[in-house]
Amino acid sequence: MTKPAYEALTPRTLPQRLGTLPALTDRVGPPDGWDVTEVGDGNLNLVFIVRGDAGAAVVKQALPYVRLVGESWPLPLKRSFFEYHALIREEARDPGAVPEVFHFDEDQALIVMEYLDRHIILRQGLIQARRYDGLGRMLGRFCARTLFRGSDLSMKAPEKKADVALFCGNVELCDITENLIFSDPYFDAEMNRHTAGLDAAVARLRADLALKVAAQELKLDFTTRAETLLHGDLHTGSVMVADDGDYRVIDPEFAFYGPMGFDIGMLISNFLMAYMSQPGHESEPGDRATYQDWLLAATDDIWSAFAEAFSRLWHEERRGILYQATLYEDQGHHQAADVALARRLDAIWRDALGFCGVEMHRRILGLAHNADFETISDEARRATCEARALALGTAAIHGRDSISDMGALLELARRTGTEDHL
Amino acid sequence: MTKPAYEALTPRTLPQRLGTLPALTDRVGPPDGWDVTEVGDGNLNLVFIVRGDAGAAVVKQALPYVRLVGESWPLPLKRSFFEYHALIREEARDPGAVPEVFHFDEDQALIVMEYLDRHIILRQGLIQARRYDGLGRMLGRFCARTLFRGSDLSMKAPEKKADVALFCGNVELCDITENLIFSDPYFDAEMNRHTAGLDAAVARLRADLALKVAAQELKLDFTTRAETLLHGDLHTGSVMVADDGDYRVIDPEFAFYGPMGFDIGMLISNFLMAYMSQPGHESEPGDRATYQDWLLAATDDIWSAFAEAFSRLWHEERRGILYQATLYEDQGHHQAADVALARRLDAIWRDALGFCGVEMHRRILGLAHNADFETISDEARRATCEARALALGTAAIHGRDSISDMGALLELARRTGTEDHL
């Protein structure tokens, strides 16, 4: 029997095509009681919620094109393979941080996974000014655990090199990152768009030649520095949150071996964009001020939890080929190991600042915008907020060597958030 | 018919086993007239010269262990596959710079290639104080062409990522580099050895904690920064030279995607070690002084030819995903492209300084020493020369941000070469 060729699911065909799959029937019940809805609101894929007598599950299926753009932009189904492999690695490295995977079908490019019934997308929560206790700390820990445990600091060298080779196949999704984040925002690329009132700010940004050089240096870092397995798209739309404190990271189909600062920089960037967007959602001037404080505190938590967890792993799980104990602890050179750790964290911080900056720029000038800003219906207010974020992004990139810590970055965000950058 | 299993060749079995191979008979003539000698003096492989009525060729075959150490250190035959793939890429990127490849047999791990009849190993030539016009310039150009054309500055992204994945398989040879160059010299590792008189200098070096941190940062750079396909072992024993000015680079079995500064740093390091070793070969004090001047001039040539050729390629062949013309030249931002180039060259220079330093250390303290020093039979003189090289290596690593150019490095080498570092 040959396998059926790939075919996109629909709510109608899903029960007949997947109705005998134990991964679903075990959890959801028999298919004749299934209720299937398609809820994918992302840029790339189909996402179905399958509800039945016994429970619910999610079926996520890749489409052979970019959903956001349409069939004119083909995108290979194998991204589902990379998402699956990233999910199971993330689960192993930070248990409970991602949805549980029940089944993977490579030919149909589909993953059956846990349905997070009481969760919403974090970005929606931030737009609604909801608070999530411990969220920043959970995300910082997630970064530390996945980034450390996916690197030469932890993995055996043959295993790490084989994994680098595997994820080198994720060419097309890397291409999206490479172009849309690092290049398109810095010139008048075809798929760009921006809020009308930003024209002058955009012209200034694109005339900043040092910025253009820095953005390409960051692109070089992304394409060449295979330090660890990245999530690759760790923004607030890739996090699901419940009010009871259960937080999960989803959608790692952009996974690739890259620099440690990438995920954490992108995450910080999206929190700071949430911060900058708040005045656009106010009913009365200042009524989101205390929520903005919470957002900055959460951003602070991301980095401090990251640094704390990374330091603990450095001391307890440094079993890879880098900075091996034979050279340090076994020689009584504990201080040198601490110096090396501090230098590593500093390097990751500087990288994160740069990636934070380019992510801000592309979300305002490129193809894929953030709902944080997009849902501000008043164009003038939106432009005001976006111009501040652009300025903060530029300052973060130029300040890679001078913004010494998270405190300084948050102070800069506060100041920029009150200025006129139009 | 199944393929015969791998079997190491001998001068006796070679004609019967390879006597029907057109790659050999076409060039050497019929096997009954063959004269076969094994000349491998490297650390890893068998090398045969096959001479016949019509000419000669080389057959290089991998052994399933490290020749230098013996069967107790197994080493996979597939390194021959990586050597072959590196050779054909080097030939494409800098035509004529490597021996011509006539045949590759993956199962027997053998490569049939051009016999360089009038050539000797460069290291032997330098020990004999021979001069080679244009050598530094040829080697600098080789680095520029192979490093630029093997990177994201030139290659298509899918092709480059597939090639990174391919060379990720060269695990065991990378392991040699990772341990023997970046770690073993900095502690009392089992396979280390050094000249007796160096004990005090070695103790000082191993107590330099900042040096130990820097060496691991360089190791991190080597294992993670997949910037370009490296030769991976570009010392003066991997270059063959003829008095008529024909120079070739051989033995790229350590090929791996790594930082651009690695090959060029290793090359500079080996020229500077040749410089430091000269007093050990003098009959009369000072009688190698003008030859030492020639060595420094050749070292200078390596970098200036590299920078010149790299700059030309930057302007003429920058067709990869990095620093694309759409962002620079097409916007009239030629100056930004020049700034970006200058920053790239500066980064490569700083990296090269670091790799230059660790290579000096491992050649004096680690497993694989250089004939430049080893052939100095007077132990005290050898120790004097080696101690200076150790000091220069340390200064190069610590001076990554302060030794601004090749002139400064050469000045440092001159000064260190007259000092007492025992």
UniProtKB/TrEMBL annotation, chains A, B:
The keyword Transferase applies. Keywords: ATP-binding, Kinase, Nucleotide-binding, Transferase. Its EC number is 2.7.1.100. Residues 35-271 form the Aminoglycoside phosphotransferase domain. InterPro entries: Aminoglycoside_PTrfase, Kinase-like_dom_sf, Methylthioribose_kinase. One of its GO terms (molecular function) is ATP binding. One of its GO terms (biological process) is methionine biosynthetic process. PANTHER family: METHYLTHIORIBOSE KINASE (PTHR34273). Homodimer. NCBIfam families: MTRK (TIGR01767). Belongs to the methylthioribose kinase family. This is S-methyl-5-thioribose kinase. It comes from Paracoccus isoporae. The lineage of its organism: Bacteria, Pseudomonadati, Pseudomonadota, Alphaproteobacteria, Rhodobacterales.
